[in-house]
Amino acid sequence: MKRIGLISDTHGSLAAEIFDLFAGVDLIVHAGDVGKEEVLIELRTIAPVRAVYGNVDAFPIRGQYPRIDFFEMAGKRFCLTHIIGSPKSFAYELFKMNKKVDVVVYGHTHKAEQTEFEQILFVNPGSASQPRNSPKRSVAILEIEGGLFAVKVKYF
User: Fold this and answer.
1) What is the mean pLDDT of residues 19-32?
2) Could you tell me the residue ranges of all domains in the chain?
3) What is the DSSP string of 110-135?
4) Is pLDDT at 120 greater than 90 in this prediction?
5) What's the whole-model pTM score?
6) 62: exposed, middle or buried (Cβ count in 10 Å: 0-12, 13-18, 19+)
7) 134: pLDDT confidence band, cut at 50, 70 and 90?
8) Would you place residue 106 in the very low, low, confident or very high pLDDT band (cuts 50, 70, 90)?
9) Rounded Cα–Cα distance for residues 139 and 156 (Å)
10) How far apart are CA 37 and CA 124, in angstroms?
11) How far apart are CA 47 and CA 23, in angstroms?
């Protein structure tokens, strides 16, 4: 089994709870609005990190990380970005880019959610710093086992 820690919208601060919540993950993906490079440095003490910049990120983060990132893990194809609009519109953007993915991880809304569209799993871990429409901050763990996905949102 592979475990991926999903995080977004840290806006420059990393809560101490993240270290326990992400203990034992194989990879951490940050879906933008990082805020400060120190957040990613701290996350790297837990596991390797992939990140994209978000709409409020400035330099140097915009110069060091892409707006959109495609990668593979455990035989699954991932797309990491900050803003998708809607699953339908983003699935069309992926089609225009000739990119086939199994999972899209995104942020921006500060609301944990997941949905499937056109056989693509869309996952937003919510905000690890400033929740909206929820009394608590959140991250998520995506588990891949036997080609199947399980997403567990962790509120703190």
Assistant:
1) 98
2) 2-155
3) -SEEEEEETTEEEEEE--SSS-SSSS
4) yes
5) 0.97
6) middle
7) confident
8) very high
9) 9
10) 21
11) 8
From the list 53, 44, 59, the residue with the least C-alpha distance to 106 is 53
For the chain, first and last CA: distance in Å?
24
Distances (CA, A) of 46 to 4, 21, 30, 132: 11, 10, 13, 26
Q: Output the CATH code of domain 2-155.
A: 3.60.21.10
Q: How far apart are CA 101 and CA 97, in angstroms?
A: 11
pLDDT, the chain, mean: 97
Nearest-angstrom CA–CA distance, 85 and 109: 10
Give the 3-state DSSP-derived string for 129-143, with helices as H, strands as E and coil as C: CCCCCCCCCEEEEEE
